[in-house]
Amino acid sequence: MRETPLSNCERQFLLTAIKEKKRLDGRQTYDYRNIKITFGTQYGCCIVDLGKTSRVLAQVSCELVAPKENRPTEGILFFNLELSQMASPAFEPSRQSELLVKLNRQLERCLRNSKCIDTESLCVVSGAKVWQVRVDVHVLNHDGNIMDASSIAAITALCHFRRPDVCVQGEEVTVFTPEERDPVPLSIYHMPICVSFSFFEQGTYLLVDPCEREERVMDGLLVIAMNKHREMCSVQSSGGIMLLKEQVLRCSKIASVKVAEVTELINKALENDKKARYVFEFL
Amino acid sequence: FPLRRKRVLLLRGKNTEAMLDSFKERVGEVLLPGDVFSFESPGSESNIQDKVICGPGLRRNGDEILVCKSGILRHKEPNLYWIDSQQKRYVPAKGECVIGIVTAKSGDVFKVDVGGSEQASLSYLAFEGATKRNRPNVQVGDLVYSQFIIANKDMEPELVCIDSSGRANGMGVFGTGGLLFKVSLGLVRKLLVPQSEIVKDLEKIFPFEMVVGMNGRIWVKARSTQQTLIVANILESCENMTAQQRRTLFKKVAQNAS
Amino acid sequence: ETPHCLVHTMEVEESSTHPTTALREFGCEQNLLSRPDGSASFVQGDTSVLAGVYGPAEVKVSKEIYDRATMEVLIQPKVGLPAILSLSAGHTRFSLFYLCPVSLLLSRRYKASLCVSVCLCVQGPQLLACSLNAACMALMDAGLPMRCLFCGVTCAIDPEGHIHTDPTAAQERESRAVMTFAIDSAERRVMMSSTKGSFSVSELQQCIAVSQRASGKIFQFYRDSVSRRYSKML
């Protein structure tokens, strides 16, 4: 299906508004939309809302598989981001669009290559059985900045997830159901979070957390993945704009502030959910 | 006038009255697709002829009237009934004025996106004062306010920017500036009612220009970017507000603006 | 601050005369996504489904059908790739593909496409029934002209021959047969059936009768949640 075209009038208005430091929804230049984190009934299911419109769902699941030959003592992480047509009429099913490939790559770089998850703890029997942890991210409604929402949803879902407990006796592996033994959380070293910056007029103006219409008029995008210890996990610039060193440094400073805020929010949400589950079990 | 398509039912006799009563009883109620109003045997004859006009959401199906959209049953004297619903997708109808986005120029026509299931065509000559030599200045991406002269399931929808006497009558290409945004078709109908409360209240806050298309697109332009944004945001938020909530919001905005 | 959507849950009481038509709590939210023309989420017991509808929208020339609207149903399982559907998800897709045209009045509107996109948020036992309900609410939200509404009801027959509507996961595992019916709102007729396991003809008839009774509660729930939604406009 075709996406509604962007009219010249909207484009002009957006650019003038950005020059006047004004945004469509009344936010300031560096403001994020309201982030809402909710959890499903199952472990490892997390929904992230950006404002009232952008919405992403992440689900973590796991299964026992044979490890990769070159890494016999490491568990496997698998990421899959889906752009369903529900999120936007422009997303076509079963097509590897450029955007989809870009988002999947970025998610992998942010969460796998940053080694934020202890893959060695996912090994059950060296060379024979390891856990494969799978993260499925579904974009449910696209109103810009899918990348940040996806990275928040994915890392929160990973923190929330519990895998079944196992017991190894010789060659035999017993997997316990949640009723028999409490499932165990993954061991996570740090939480990398993506922060997107969109640039306008060849980098003169900059916005944090662009909405869909802002994304359509932007010249370039810079995505910085960082954790709360201010360690950079990945930096990616797209759109072919030239950025000065100072601009990138400024963005990284803003990112560190945003990441600290978001991490705080995630921890609070996880804690609330834990309390709610605890109360629920007692009832 | 909130109606799009009119379907006239000619009903005869006592049953008509019974039917009208059953209709009147449920005005203001929420109805769901599949709800039926039936009038029994058409046998009894009488000389009174009554017309029932069915608006959007109501269809005639033999001796019954079928509700085919969810929403509130509305009535207007004498015998006009329709379902007031909150829909997003636009279906073109002849005579309606819409805001279109020009997507292409091909031969003698512009292709225009109106948000329906097909792109509409708009001839170069369907502008005031346009001739073969004197073509209107329209670029791809421009907005046009125009009216459907053809809109049916068998033909490509066609738009014009002139009325029957060849005058622009408010239609044509938009000038620069202003902001376009999308709301539900229900809200658009509310705004287009003559003496619309929302519009009247909004005009009191500060002056602005507004064009409302039946396809759910609204264009506004106020003195400054800030004011345009305020108007757009207020209109968008009217979607889910009761009249009471809206009045409180308008008061607040008016205080801040002055 | 007003929410842009409504959450409405309702506990359906167990009726004393027909203990077998007991249904668990439902929840429904319409118009919760901004991009699709219509959207709805439906929660039934442990199962939760999100549905989005686009249409009547533009159709590609290659997909155009000369005498009717093009239907497309996309199912997105929460875990795994959408291209590889599980049996139940595939079945849901198939059912919706045939159910939607029956309940919609779109027969004459060709050169248009209709896309129903369903995301299975929490996969529970009544995936099919819940997806049908979510899709119906989404179609209603999109404002597409409909002849009637439809809903899905699941029944399970346990080894002793008792019929349970809306079975839990455990009940479903132990049951001898599981059936799901799609029932229309106009005459309470069966529009689609899906069965698994073995059962007698009289058991099938009993299940249909029970489902028809249970459907009344679901349709009442539809009416209540739509009324809530429009209450602001009254």
From TrEMBL, chain A:
Residues annotated as domain Exoribonuclease phosphorolytic: 32-164, 190-256
Subcellular localization: Cytoplasm; Nucleus, Nucleolus
GO MF term list: mRNA 3'-UTR AU-rich region binding
InterPro entries: ExoRNase_PH_dom1 (IPR001247), ExoRNase_PH_dom2 (IPR015847), ExoRNase_PH_dom2_sf (IPR036345), Exosome_comp_Rrp42_subfam (IPR050590), PNPase/RNase_PH_dom_sf (IPR027408), Ribosomal_Su5_D2-typ_SF (IPR020568), Rrp45 (IPR033100)
UniProt xrefs under Gene3D superfamilies: GHMP Kinase, N-terminal domain
UniProt keyword annotations, A-Z: Cytoplasm, Exosome, Nucleus, RNA-binding, rRNA processing
Pfam families: RNase_PH, RNase_PH_C
Gene Ontology BP annotations: exonucleolytic trimming to generate mature 3'-end of 5.8S rRNA from tricistronic rRNA transcript (SSU-rRNA, 5.8S rRNA, LSU-rRNA); nuclear mRNA surveillance; nuclear polyadenylation-dependent rRNA catabolic process; rRNA catabolic process; TRAMP-dependent tRNA surveillance pathway; U1 snRNA 3'-end processing; U4 snRNA 3'-end processing; U5 snRNA 3'-end processing
Cellular component per GO, a single term: cytoplasmic exosome (RNase complex)
Record family assignment: Belongs to the RNase PH family.
Stated name of the protein: Exosome complex component RRP45
Organism phylogeny: Eukaryota, Metazoa, Chordata, Craniata, Vertebrata
Automatic annotation (TrEMBL), chain B:
Record key words, sorted: Cytoplasm, Exosome, Nucleus, RNA-binding, rRNA processing
Primary location recorded for the protein, binned into one broad class: cytoplasm
GO cellular component: cytoplasmic exosome (RNase complex); nuclear exosome (RNase complex); nucleolus
Record localization: Cytoplasm; Nucleus, Nucleolus
One of the GO biological process terms: CUT catabolic process
Coiled coil: none
One Pfam family from the record: KH_6
Domain of life: Eukaryota
Exosome complex exonuclease Rrp40 N-terminal domain residues: 55-89
Positions of the K Homology domain: 178-225
PANTHER family recorded: EXOSOME COMPLEX COMPONENT RRP40, PNAS-3 RELATED
Family the entry assigns: Belongs to the RRP40 family.
Protein name: Exosome complex component RRP40
From TrEMBL, chain C:
Protein location: Cytoplasm; Nucleus, Nucleolus
Keywords: Cytoplasm, DNA-binding, Exosome, Nucleus, Phosphoprotein, rRNA processing
Principal cellular location given in the protein's record: cytoplasm
Gene3D superfamilies tied to this protein: GHMP Kinase, N-terminal domain
Gene Ontology molecular functions: DNA binding; RNA binding
Keyword Transmembrane: no
Organism superkingdom: Eukaryota
Coiled coil: none
GO biological process, alphabetically ordered: nuclear mRNA surveillance; poly(A)-dependent snoRNA 3'-end processing; rRNA catabolic process; rRNA processing; U4 snRNA 3'-end processing
Ranges for domain Exoribonuclease phosphorolytic: 23-70, 149-213
InterPro entries reported for this sequence: ExoRNase_PH_dom1 (IPR001247), ExoRNase_PH_dom2 (IPR015847), ExoRNase_PH_dom2_sf (IPR036345), PNPase/RNase_PH_dom_sf (IPR027408), Ribosomal_Su5_D2-typ_SF (IPR020568), RNase_PH (IPR050080)
Any GO CC annotation of this UniProt entry: nuclear exosome (RNase complex)
Family: Belongs to the RNase PH family.
Assembly, per entry: Homodimer. Component of the RNA exosome core complex (Exo-9), composed of EXOSC1, EXOSC2, EXOSC3, EXOSC4, EXOSC5, EXOSC6, EXOSC7, EXOSC8 and EXOSC9; within the complex interacts with EXOSC3, EXOSC8, and EXOSC9. The catalytically inactive RNA exosome core complex (Exo-9) associates with the catalytic subunit EXOSC10/RRP6. Exo-9 may associate with DIS3 to form the nucleolar exosome complex, or DIS3L to form the cytoplasmic exosome complex.
Name of protein: Exosome complex component RRP46
Organism this protein belongs to: Lepisosteus oculatus (Spotted gar)
Lineage, broadest ranks: Eukaryota, Metazoa, Chordata, Craniata, Vertebrata
